[in-house]
Write a structure and sequence with these properties.
With 264 residues, the protein is α+β, with helices and mostly antiparallel strands. It has 8 helices and 10 strands. Strand 7, helix 5 (188-195) and strand 8 (199-201) form a beta-alpha-beta unit. Keywords: Membrane, Transmembrane, Transmembrane helix. The chain crosses the membrane at residues 21-44.
Length: 264
Amino acid sequence: MEINIKEKAKKAGKVVKKTVFTLNLIVTVIFFAFIVALIIVNLIKGAQGETINLGVYGKTYRFREKNLLSVIKNKAKKINWQEVIKRSHIKRQVENYQPYNQEVSLPTALNSKVFEPSMYYTLKFNIRDSKGNIIYPKGFKYKITNYIFLPNFLVVINGDSKKQIEWFKHSKFKNNIAVMLLITKGDYYKLEKKLGIPVYFYMKQLQQRFKLKAVPSVIWQKGTTIYVKQYGKNAVYKAIKNIKKHKKNNKALKESGLLNPDYK
């Protein structure tokens, strides 16, 4: 009888333990299911644009980077706009530059010819050394080209003449690095853009020395002699012949007027 009671008590104890374990397992599963559900809900909220406060962890610092818009405004305040405007004004002045009281007006060359301008110069004052002694007296005459050399070919044209511009553009001088282009008239800046090379003004100081009669003309030095070659109508025909060797049916050439025998 006692054995039966003990066996029943053991069985009952086992049942209770199993029941308690089962309940604990169920509670644990429910707890973890709740946590997972909470995480999923928060993730969904975050995806919908809602913020999640995760709390503060570790040491924090104040955000000290300046606002970009404020930085730009402050930089703009520091700019001297008067100087910017002044630079723009200077740029326009450079682009529209014309030599004051230095213009040289020359006719268009009708005939080709070569001449040698005088390169002799007469001193208008005494040249002294450091001790005051006269080295070269006033009136002393000397040849400039004995002491200096002209390294470039100077091509002089009328920058207002479309025909002379076209002549230069198709001549042997256009792509020669030893050539400097000078104009008696015209817009040097626009001509530079058109030809893609530097353009300079032929001014009175140069004319006083080289004594050009007409344009287009080319100036160069050989030995101690300066030569000036003036290009007339025949130069135009030579340019046309040269173009025809490389470009047949040149429409741009016809439109330029260079085929006109009354080229001026």
